[in-house]
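Below is how a single chain appears once it has passed through the pipeline. First comes the sequence as given, then the structure the pipeline wrote out for it. We keep one example in the README because the format questions we get most often are answered faster by looking than by reading.
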Amino acid sequence: MPFFNVLVEGSNLFIPGKDGDPPVVGFFASRVVWASKARKAEQKALQSVRDEWQTGEYANHPTSDRLQLAASEVSRSSFSRWLGAPNKGHVFFPSDAEDDVFSAKRTA
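Resulting structure:
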């Protein structure tokens, strides 16, 4: 069975920034999963991130219940990458960076 790297994008958040920083409105997370095909890999990765926001570390954020998730990219990976992948964590982006992220996607 193949391995896939899935880039997950989370949006529709509002987490107040610290020390005057702008609020966090989204994130990217990468997961390496084992699945029979790319669509199944997307589903597994999305569920992994969703679980973190429903019952894990991020469940206490006031806007976690309205989180929207999407698989931005899916690519083949390897067994060794799967073994070494932490499969947790996020890279958050603030509201002022959101326009930069979306304009970069449109030009890519």
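Residues 3-107 form one domain.

See the next section for the split statistics.
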